[in-house]
Design brief:
- By secondary structure, the protein is an alpha/beta fold.
- It has one domain (11-315): Alpha-Beta Barrel (TIM Barrel).
- It has helices at 44-56, 75-83, 100-110, 124-131, 137-148, 169-179, 205-213, 278-282, 287-299, 313-316; strands spanning 11-15, 61-65, 90-95, 114-118, 155-160, 182-187, 219-221, 229-232, 239-243, 256-259, 264-266, 275-276.
- Strands 7-8-9-6-5-4-3-2-1-10-11-12 form a 12-stranded mixed beta sheet.
- α1 packs across α9 (287-299) and α2 packs parallel to α3.
- The radius of gyration is 19 Å and the shape is globular.
- Bound molecules: S-adenosylmethionine (SAM) and iron/sulfur cluster.
- Iron/sulfur cluster binds next to α10.
- S-adenosylmethionine is lined by residues 20, 26-27, 65-66, 68, 94-96, 118, 157, 159, 186, 188-189, 191, 194, 313-314, 317-318.
Amino acid sequence: MNDLYKRRINYLRISVTDLCNLRCVYCMPAEGVQKMKHQDLLSFEEIVRLVTIFARIGVKKIRLTGGEPLVRKGIEELVAMIQSVQGIEEITLTTNGQLLEDKAVLLKKKGLTRVNVSLDTLDPEKYRKITRLGESAPVLKGIEAAFKAELTPVKINTVVMKGINDDEIFDFAAMAVEKGLSWRFIEFMPLGGVGEEQKHYYMSNDILIERLKKKYDLVPYPHKTLISDDYVIPGTKAVLGFISPLSHKFCSRCNRVRMTADGRLLPCLLSSLEYPLRKMIRSGATDEEIQKRIEEAIKNKPKEHLFQGFKPMHTIGG
Ligand code: SAM
Ligand code: SF4
């Protein structure tokens, strides 16, 4: 369906857990976060019921995210359940890649279309510092496994942080060229859960594009609905994408809404507006009643973000 500003909302991002096996400095505090109560998480059946209602009003694409979606037990079964919902054409997943190597084949078999893998550095030491808990080797293996399982195109997400990993952008571009990857540079957003020290990490993607253009011929690859400004490097399969929520608001092209793991529908990533659906589901609401509430949320999707709300990223899934 369309919202009030004629944006077609056809994409739902679902956070399937608030838990994560990493503690990235830009996303979670070092000590972790207070866990949601298990009974507050939407069950797979509840998620699929909501997906079915969303599909009825025109949602075609689902992304599973988190927290870390691959730590949710039985995630492959959820993929299979969503795959059988009429109208859903694409199921994707955003992961830190730690558990991807072992799960890639089964995820593909159950109906996952492709993956985005988050990787902010190619330096193992730096990876440990950024994620506080992880090793980069399993992520690289996970990327290879995703390729082999044909979860393609594999897209890499990198949050670029001034003075931390902005010196690696040419290495990322070189790897994108070598492996035919789509590499997406995401502007750091100082959201809830981020400490004072990290708030200085922000840098505009404009600076990265300017730097990369000195080495590469970046040819714009026009999109109408997507939020990433993409460039191809002629003669290669690499695509460099720039997601710039702060320097270049893409709100007019936004086609998505988000569901938290405990069933709150968020019409906008950067707004405090939310529609709790879990209570409705568990108090016997009919599909029609839930659909009405969803339609109301979509109608109320803000025209653009005012950078309010500041929910921690691990609760909303990026
Ligand atoms: N755990 C999975 C992962 O890391 O890919 C999925 C959830 S994570 C919240 C989704 C995406 O949000 C990741 O690509 C991550 O880099 C990005 N992200 C998290 N915090 C961010 C922040 N403060 N600014 C920009 N992107 C952020
Ligand atoms: Fe976990 Fe992803 Fe947040 Fe990193 S960005 S702490 S991997 S949820």
